[in-house]
Structure formats: structure tokens, C-alpha cells
Amino acid sequence: MKDSLALRFLYGTLPGRAVLKLLVRPGVSKAAGAFLASGASGWIVPLFIRKNRIDMRGVEIPPGGFSSFNDFFIRKRKGAVPADKRESLICPCDGFLSCEKIREDTELCVKHTRFSVADLLKDARLAEDYRGGTALIFRLTPVHYHRYCYAAAGRIRRYRRIAGVLHCVRPVALRTCPVFAQNSREYQVIETEQFGRVVQMEVGALLVGKIRNHPVTAKTNRVFAGQEKGYFEFGGSTVILLLQKGVADGSSLVKKSRGADGELPVKLGEDICPPLSAEGTDKKICRKSAKK
Asked: For a surface tag, which of 123, 137, 218, 243 has the fewest beta carbons within 10 Å of its beta carbon?
């Protein structure tokens, strides 16, 4: 992916990094978000659609059209993914998927940046539960559909929100600072029958700062695969799934990755991993079964 001149200036030059220090302050991000949520930003919508050739088929367009750019950005599609009890792990969002093995005493490498699971979670004890497991990283660009769902059915055992400095998730940024260790993020630990305890995390990016997760009924904390979990407001963002050891292996997905970045295009609701019990314990594979 080629970085824009603006991003190369911000992350690749001394003057740019001085400007960046101002841009990543919460107040600046808040102001940008306020503009994108106002009617003054409505003119951007048709230009954005044409420039990025966004498929509007099935999009729910409100009467009178979208009131702001952010109203368009968090658009809903008709025929949402059905929330059910299916056994497979599903893609929680549209985007580009990469897989990493969580090895003992090593750091995950995501888009040229290294970080430990403990840093990502801000919890060393919880991170130990995922040693030897698999990390599935779903990267969304601004042109993707920014609503996401639960990847598996289960009960929510824990929730945490981590505030952070907001940066973009483009490759040029990742070469100069540990972006995922600094971005705002939220995660839930979900107890599932097929995949053990799954961590599902949302990571904010520059000009996002708003991860909008829907509240879960406190009485049951029960969620289903395909149930809408929330959405990102404007910006490129990321969803991360952490799977425990012996649950699934992302090696086959890595082999199927496309492009120099080692990423696989995926769609919201696609089956990606069957439980090992369904395939046999000697077939530790993570598969993408939907047609490309």
C-alpha cells in the first residue's frame, strides 16, 4: 500500500513529527470528529463514494440522505449477518486479515511493528492465557464497512477500555512508532463453547477516538456470532481476536494471504475457523471457507 504525501511528511520528517504531536492530542481529534459529525461535512459524502468506488447496493439510506459524513461512515447495510449459534468462528468485520502465532516470550509483529500481548491487553496475567495461541488481526481502511459483530457465541466475562494516543494505522506510521501500544482500544473476554476464552478487541486510530460498542444485557451477558457488537466512527481501524493454544491454528490463512503485506481480504460474517473438535485434533487448521 502506498502512503500519501501527507502521511510521509507527518511520520518521515522532523517538521512533520512536530505537527503530528499536535494532531494526536485528544482536543484536535475531538474537533475533527465534531466537524465530520456536523452538516457542514455532508458535501464530502458523494465525493468520497465516487473516489473510492464504494458499493452502495444494500445500504440503508435515511430519508433526505446522510446528514453528515460520519452519518454516512457508520451506515448500515440491509440483510445484516444473522446472529445465531453456529459453531464456526466468523469474520467480525470487512477488512484485511493477517494471522500471527503467539509464541513463548516473543512479540507479535503486525505491519512492521512489534508489541507484546501483555502491552496490548495491559494485563500480563491475562496475556499468559494466550501464549501458544493465535492472533487474528483485521485491518479496516476508511472505505470499508465500519460496523462489526461478535466472532463467536458465548458469555462476556470481562470488559476493559484503554485510553491512548491516537495514531493512524498506515504502514508509514507503523515504521516509526509502536502504534498498537499507543492507540485507544477496548476488549471483551468471551467464554465460548467451541473456542475457549476469546479476546475480541477494537483499536481506534487517528481521528477516530470513538469506538462505539453496544451495551450488553447485564442479566445474561450472552452474545451470539453475527450479533452487531458496535461500530467505528471515521478513520481506519482494527479488530483483533486472540485465541488460546489448541483452539485453532492460523497457518493455512497465512498461506492464503494475498499481496506483499501478507493480508487476506475478508468479509463480515464469513466462516474462518471451525472448532478443532469438528475437524479432529490432528487437523489444527484455521480455514477460510467462503468463496473469494
From this structure: 218
Mean pLDDT of the chain: 77
pLDDT tens digits, residue range 95-119? Answer: 988 888 887 765 765 444 466 888 8
Q: Which of 15-19, 65-69, 83-87 has the highest mean pLDDT?
A: 65-69
The grid cell for 71 is 452519518
Contact partners, residue 93, CB within 8 Å, separation at least 6: 138, 140, 144, 145, 146, 147, 148, 149, 239, 268
Contact 129, 208 (CB under 8 A): no
Task: Indicate which residues carry an active-site annotation.
Answer: 94, 237
149 bridge partner residues: 228
| Residue 79 is assigned to a structural domain of this protein | no
Residues whose CB is less than 8 angstroms from the CB of residue 158 and which lie 6 or more positions away in sequence, other chains included? 188, 189
In a domain, 264, yes or no: yes
Query: The pTM is what?
Result: 0.79
Look up residue 157 and give its three cell numbers.
Answer: 466475562
Q: Are residues 244 and 107 in the same domain?
A: yes
Q: Which residues contact 50 (CB under 8 A, 6 or more apart)?
A: none
C-alpha 67/C-alpha 45 separation (Å) is: 10
Kindly state whether residue 78 falls inside one of the protein's structural domains: no
